[in-house]
Structures are given as structure tokens and as C-alpha cells.
Amino acid sequence: MPNYNYCLQIKDLNIAKREEDIGFYAGFVGASYMLGRALLSIFWGKVADRYGRKPVIIIGLATVVLFNTLFGLNLSYWMAISTRFLLGCFSGALVAIRAYATEIFREEHQALGLSTVTTAWGVGLIIGPAVGGFFVQPAEKYPNIFSKTSFFGRFPYFLPCFSISALAFVVLMISFWFPETLHKHNKKDASNSDSFESVETTTFPTVTDENKINSKKSLLKNWPLMSSIIVYCIFCLHDMAYSEIFSLWTVSPKKFGGLNYSTEQVGEVLAISGVGMIISQTLLYPYLGKLIGPIMVSRIGGILSVPLLASYPFLAALSGVALWLLLNLASLMKNALSLLICTALIIMQNRAVGQEQRGAANGIAMTTMSLAKAVGPSMGGAM
């Protein structure tokens, strides 16, 4: 469910005394998920390195089904924060999926494998806003189907949450037939090694007991990995703040500098930008990645994002077709650039490590990125 849906949910919970404070409280709901993910991402990465990618993916999908459904049933602000926090704690699937996408493809197609992960994000940006925008508050939008005294009238945010949970359940069932990729091309003794210890084994032909004890330090000294993670965290902080501000800005009244859009209109904008993200990933990134490499893709994408974001405040002065056209164009370009940058940085992170350490490396990346994303909604909502 997109950010603006739980912004509406915070409004209905009457926790905010003023309309301007809704973003402040909604920011903590978004941050609670990222905080939970930050706490346990390294743990899930080590589990993926030791027991396989598939079990972590299955556990992550199962918790999406459970806690996303519960989120649609919350009746208080603290229940909303709790369900999002627990969902974050058990969301280790993305850590394993990034490693999985790298390993299931041959080396020459690894970039394509990782781009499919971010392409799936683009698909989610189409499905999510559509489901959220059209299914939220069904008793008000479709009174002939859902009455205000019905279950969906009492829980106006359950239908979009349940719809996403149902989709996650279908994927969960399919995931049981996924092949396991861990240690597919590695020696047998690597299968029982700790993820941080295997970093030492991969980096140095001879490993002493002292080196094994200090293996965590050596992983953090992997400069190609850590530099890409640092850049990734900074970008995620910016991107999460943008998502929070964009959601609030579009639905805010004109007197506060917003666009006064409805949830359906915002869902339409996000869905159109999602289509652009899919096109950029399937057609543009494979070509750019081979032509200039992931480092230059991330640099150019970051540079182009600056003037694009600076143009957003001027859109509030427009109306009608001009506003619709330019807003959709700007949102499409912004999300396409974001996806290109993320894909390039994720590729750099996974190329910086071997298979035995890939889960732990993605766990570290996910932890630091989640901390940045936890700050992003709170900072963006407060601003």
C-alpha cells in the first residue's frame, strides 16, 4: 500500500491535531518498518549464507501475508506502528533475493538478473498505487457494493492490504518450487562456513584462527563494497524523503502549496511512472550498463536528478492538462532515474563479494539502507 494511503489512515485515526501534522505521524509509521528491517537484515543475510536463499525468501513472503493483513485491521496508531515494525523485522526476503538473482544467472547475465529485481519494483509501483488508490475506503467509493456498516466500512484500509497479501500468498506458494542457488558452484566445505569467515577465505588463500575472529572487520574493510553501500544509503535517504513528501504534497490542499489530488489521481500518477520504470529497466539499463558501466550510470543519474527535483515546486502553480502532463513526465523521469541508480549500485555491491559472503554483504547493505530510509520518512514528513 503506497505511502499516501497510510497518510489517510493516520488522518482517520485522529492522532494528528492539525492537518499539517499528518505527515509527521505518518513518517514514524514508515520509519518503523525500516527500523525493524535494519535490526535484523544482517541476521537474515547470515541465515541465507548458511541455510540457503530459498528458506529466507519463503519466511519473508509468509510474514508479508500475515503482517500486511494485520496492518489493514489496525484501530490505533500504535498498532499501525507495531505491525509495520514486525513486518520490517521479518522482511529478509529482499536480502536473499538480491543474492539469488545474481547467482541464478551466468556471470555475463548477472546485471540482467539484478535488473529484474528492480524491474519487479517498477511492477509493484504499478500494482500498488492502483490497488491502494482504487480499493482504499471502498464503502465511500463503491456504496452500492460495500455498505458503511459492513466489515469493509469499519476497516476502510483492509481491502488494499488484503489484496496485496493475497498476491504475496500466491508468490509464496510458487516459491516452494524455486531451485536453491547457494554454493552451487562452490566447494563442499564452503557450505558450512560462517558468512563473515568465508569473506576471509575468499580474500586470502591462507586463513589463520585470528583472521577468522576478525573476519567481520575484514568484510567492512572491503572498500568497493562499503563505498557503494555508503552512496546507496545517501540515495535511499533522499529517495524515501521524496516519496513521503510527494505523497503528502499531491494530496495536500492548494492553500498549503499542494495539488489537492484525490487518491485515484495520485495512484494514476504513480502507476504511469511505474510503467516508465519498467521500460527504462528492460530497454535502457541493459544498453547503458554495457556502454558506460554501473559507476557512470549512477553518477549521471544522480546529476540529472538535481534539476529535475528542483522543478517540482513550480508545478503547483499549474492546473488542468498542463499540470497532469508535466507532473506525470517529472514523476516518470524521477522514478526511472532512481531505478537506474539503484540497479547500478546493487550490481556494484554484489560484484564486490563472492557467493559465500553475498548474503551477509546484502544484509549489511540492507541494514544501513534501512536506517537511512527510517530517517527519510520522518525527516520528509516533518519537513
From TrEMBL:
Keywords: Membrane, Transmembrane, Transmembrane helix, Transport
Recorded GO CC terms: plant-type vacuole membrane; plasma membrane
GO molecular function, one term: solute:potassium antiporter activity
Occurrences of domain Major facilitator superfamily (MFS) profile (ranges): 1-383
Membrane topology: Multi-pass membrane protein
GO annotation terms (biological process): regulation of stomatal closure
Subcellular location, record wording: Membrane
Principal subcellular localization: membrane
Transmembrane domains' residue ranges: 22-44, 56-75, 81-100, 112-137, 157-178, 225-249, 269-288, 300-326, 332-348
Pfam families, alphabetized: MFS_1
Source domain of life: Eukaryota
The protein's name in its UniProt record: Major facilitator
Species of provenance: Parasponia andersonii (Sponia andersonii)
